[in-house]
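As the next step, I selected for study a record pairing a protein sequence with its backbone structure tokens, which the following lines show:
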Amino acid sequence: MQRRSFLKLGIGSAIVLAAAGGAVALLQPGLVNGKLSAPARLVLRRVAQAMLAGTLPVDAAAQEVSLLALLDRADNFIAGTPQSVQAELSQLFALLPTMAGRRGIVGLSATWESATVAEVGEALQGMRTSGTALKQQAYLGLHDIVCAPYFSGEESWAVLGYPGPTAV
């Protein structure tokens, strides 16, 4: 393939991917009424399991309670951000559940449902250390949306050995 043809193919592919991502965001927004959509909740849940490995409760029932509380607090966290941030998060959470977003941005070949915690963690590490600013920004956004709500919840304090705030 000639260099010019290769460049045309790359530009054409980028345009198609951008259009497809925009169409997905319009058809299935990541945030609905300021809260995570069902596909976005699944993505954030799987991301949280990988990012918080070792700090989540070991007991399956306790971990479920902890994750559900985290997702509810994440909705409140997102609702407290400016509309411009919510629009960007909606686009991100519309794209990540799709195959193109999962593979292109996260670098995860398995579906969100079937990926192991280790696979998701490895993909997130790839985002964090990527040379692409978009992937790093997406990782940092996911990190903040997971960690701030999780560590603000009382159920995480015992795991960390934090007794809670002192009465003033």
